[in-house]
Task: inverse folding
């Protein structure tokens, strides 16, 4: 989901309006998703492009957490 920082009041950035714990949790979630996607890819990089189950596992981890 894209975030439009231009819509924040009086030039404030999104990071100025969210509590630190929210930002830390979001960063941790993104990091977990990246690790999961990489783990699926690294099982066998040559077959990842044609293995829709692994692609789905990598994508599902990302889409359900964000």
Result:
């Amino acid at each position: 989901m894209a975030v439009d920082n231009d819509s924040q009041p009086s030039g404030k950035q999104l990071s100025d309006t969210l509590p630190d714990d929210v930002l830390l949790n979001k960063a941790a979630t993104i990091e977990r998703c990246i690790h999961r996607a990489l783990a699926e890819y690294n099982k066998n990089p040559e077959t990842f492009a044609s293995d829709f189950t692994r692609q789905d596992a990598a994508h599902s981890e990302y889409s359900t957490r964000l």
